[in-house]
Amino acid sequence: MAEEVNLALHNISQANHLFTFDLYKTLAAEPGNLFFSPLSIQVILALTFLGAKDNTARQMAKGLRIPEDTAVVEDGVGALMNRLQEINDVRLDVANRIYLKAGYPIKEGFNSSASRFKAGVEEVDFLEEPKARKTINDWVESKTNHKIKEIIPSGILNGLTRLVLVNAIYFRGDWQTKFKKHRTFPVPFHSADGSTKNVDMMSLEEHLKYSERSDLNCQVLLLPYKGERFSMLILLPREVNGLASLEEKLADFSLQDTLNNLQGTNVHAQLPKFKIEYSKELTSVLTKLGMTDMFENAANFTGITDAEHLKVDKVLHKAFVEVNEEGTEAAAATAVVGVPYSLTIWK
User: How far does the signal peptide extend, from start to end residue (predicted)?
Assistant: First the structure.
C-alpha cells in the first residue's frame, strides 16, 4: 500500500512539473510580469476532475497532465497534502474548501474525494451575493496571511451559482543564508521590453549550487531556503535581451536534469528585491490546453451531482510574491465556480 501511495505521489509530482510548463508557455505569451501557482490551480482542478465523467474527465486529465485513474489522483494529492503538513523549516499552508448552495445535493463519492483533499464543505446562500462573496473572500484572506484579497470579485456569484471550489496556499521561507541589508544598492535593471530602471539589488557571496547551460544560453543558480527542502531556482539569460529566446527553449527543459547538473561553487549572486501581484481568469488559458467541455453545455459533472447538469463558469486565480533580504513570502488562491447549463428556449 505504501508503495502504491508513493507511486501516486510521484505521478502527481511529475504531472505538476509538466502542467507548470504548459501553463507558463501559455501565460508568458501575454505582456507584463508573471507569477502564478501551478500547484494551487492543479490541486483544485484535480478535485473538480474527480467529479467529471467521460470526455470531460478525459480532457481534464490530459490538460492537467494527471492520470485518468481517479484512485491514483486521490492517493497522490492526498499524499501530497499530508507531506506538505510535515514541513517545519518553512511555513507552507495548503487548504481546500467547497462552498455549496444551501441544501444542494452532492454525491457521497465526491464528498469522500473532498475529504481526501482535506476540503471542508460549507453551505452558503448565493442569492445573498455580498454575504456569500465575503464568506469566501474572508476564508481565502485568512488562509493566505491577508495576501490574497477578493479572489471572488463582485458580479461573479448569483442565483445560478451552485458551488465554488477554492484552494489557498501560503508560503513563508527564510533564506538558508540571508542577504545583508547594508549590501543592497540601487542598480540598473534591464526589463524584457528593453527599458532600464533602477531597482534595489541584493548581493551575496556564498557557496551555492550553480551551472552554466550553453543549450539555454543562461546561468542557473539554486538559492536554498532554511532546511534546504525548498529552493528558488533562478535562470538568468546571458544576453540582456535573451529572455524571449530562453522562454522558447524551456519547451524541452528538464528540471531534474538541470538540478542534477548543478555543482557547488563560490558564487557572487545578485538578486533584485521585488514584489509581484498577479490576477487572471483562466478560462481561455485552460481551453487552449484542451479543457473545453468543462466550460460548455457538453460538460459532464455527474460525479458531483445528478440534480442537474453542471458546468464550470469561471476559474479565478490570484497570486502574490515578495522577495527580500530575509527570504520569500508568497501566496495564491484559485476558485472554480460551478453553474447549471443555460437553458435554450426554441420558439
Answer: none
The percent helix, strand, coil of the chain (3-state, each to 5) is 35, 35, 35
Question: How far from 179 is each of 184, 232, 275, CA to CA, in Å?
Answer: 8, 14, 17
Once rounded to an integer, what is the mean pLDDT over residues 7-17?
A: 80
| Secondary structure (3-state) at 2 | helix
Question: Which CATH superfamily does the domain covering 185-272 fall into?
Answer: Alpha-1-antitrypsin, domain 1 (2.30.39.10)
What's the confidence (pLDDT) of residue 13?
Answer: 83
pLDDT for the residue 251: 67
How large a percentage of the chain has pLDDT more than 90?
72
- pLDDT tens digits, residue range 196-210? 889 999 999 999 999
Q: What is the dihedral angle through the alpha carbons of 298, 27, 232, 275, rounded to the nearest 10 degrees? A: -120
pTM of the predicted model as reported, rounded to 2 decimal places:
0.92
* All cell numbers assigned to 323: 522577495
- Give dist(CA 323, CA 204) in Å, integer: 14
pLDDT in tens, 167-192: 999 999 999 999 999 999 999 887 77
Instruction: Provide the pairing of β-strand 327-340 with 218-224.
Output: unpaired
Give every strand in the sheet of 310-323, ordered side by side: 119-124, 91-101, 163-174, 327-340, 310-323, 274-281
Predicted confidence at residue 346, as pLDDT, reads: 39
Q: Which residue type, as a one-letter code, is found at position 56?
A: T
- Residue 211 phi, psi dihedral angles, 5° rounding: -155, 165
For the chain, percent of residues with pLDDT exceeding 70? 96
| C-alpha to C-alpha distances, 173 to 169, 201, 306, nearest whole angstrom | 13, 19, 44
Could you tell me which of 48, 45, 115, 12 has the C-alpha nearest to residue 303? 48
Q: Where is 313: in which H helix or E strand?
A: strand 310-323
User: Residue 5: is its pLDDT beyond 90?
Assistant: no
265 CB-contact burial (10 Å; exposed 0-12 / middle 13-18 / buried 19+) = exposed
* Residue range(s) in the chain whose domain bears CATH number 2.30.39.10: 185-272
Largest pairwise CA distance in the chain? 76
Residue 80: its H or E element = helix 70-84
